[in-house]
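Good morning C.,

I know you're traveling, so I'll keep this short. The sequence:
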Amino acid sequence: MIYALLGIAAAFCAYIQWGDEIPLPSFDKDMTKKEAKYIHNVNKQEEKEKFKRAKLDRKPSGYMTVEEYELLSAPKDRMTEEVDIPKIPTPADMVYVPQPAYKIVRYNNPPGSPEINLTKTFYEKRQQNAQGIVSPDFTKLVYPAVYYYPNSGSTACDLFVINLEDAKSNMDKILTANTIHRMSEPILSTDKTNDNYYTFRTLTPVDFSTDGTKLLVKEKIGNTKDGIWQTMPVVYDFTTGVSYRLVEIRDAIIYYWKENNGLNLDDKRWDVYPLGFAADNPDWVIVNAVAYTGAAPVNLGTWKVSSKGEQSQLITFTNSEVEVSMNGYKLVKDGIVSPSITEKEEKQLKRIEKEAAKQKKKEDKAEVEALEKSYKAKIKQMDEEFKEAQKDYNLRRKIQGSTSGDEILIKYKEIKAEQEAKKQLQLEKQKAKELKKLEKQRLKEEKQRQKELEKQQSNN
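The tokens, ready to paste straight into the viewer:
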């Protein structure tokens, strides 16, 4: 009990000693104004966050909303993607790196020579895009995509088309051709069943027809342990989207040798080599047939077959009389670019990149300044609107305290009209002041021009 009384006495003494210095909380009876001010501050904070977010969005990062992510990750039309010409990168510690030079040459030269060359990495990557052929009008490129199936050691193939870009040189069209621009579906495909071990099936473009509407392809089927079993000429028609397997030419060769020489080619190892389209008639395909004897191959004749396989005919047993057109193109390396040219290009590129970086920095700075200016203007407008709303609210409260009934609305309108007239008068004064300033500046410039003109006349 004694300790309790002592505690109360100590508290009372402290109250007497410090009570005058302790600030007592003040409660504003008008909560409407406080609420309006709170909402105004919240809106200003939101504008500030929008401004900061806009600055960050100039360089997209991983921090984004779900809606923003979905918008950025929406599928794009890969056919419209821009592709730059490939260039060998120069390491920082090297002064000169040889840049290859290219030239455009005939693809089917000599006739029937195109083959697919598989690299060592093919069996590791399990896919390879082989040499492509460009149409005579440089509108499309056709290339084979070869696939490897390690579970059976077999190979399959698809033939894809890339539409080349317009408004570019022929060289740039080929250099910028990229698989992202290829048509989604292949125009030709081999059988992709891989139940037979070590079998291979490939599609090799041989040549285009003169007008570029047809493509001759050779389909090779064989076994890596046993060699090629059969080569089948195939013609794809771009105008109709239909392919023709020229099986009739093989039947015609078998029939000819059986009827005229009693030789059954079904019991022999033989094959055909598609050479290309006939020079005198693009509707005919030229092929050469060869039988294997274990020593020197035996020529079975050079034949021609219509592009749809409707007719077959023996031409000759010597290739001297055969004329095959060469229509498609390909790109090959042609030495290296001169070091002096490469160095000049590098210096020029560095200047361009430096100027581009400066311009980008300048544009970025201007963009930030524009964002900041817009943000400050918005905040200024919000502050003015809030200030005007508070004044209007105070006016209403003042009128309600001094009048009643319809007089409140009448007096409010009168005061607002007076305020608007006063505001309009101030604006007109400000406008007149600015016009006077502009006129003064104009007269000054006119006077300066007159002086310069008089000086120029005196010198003459």
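Safe travels,
E.
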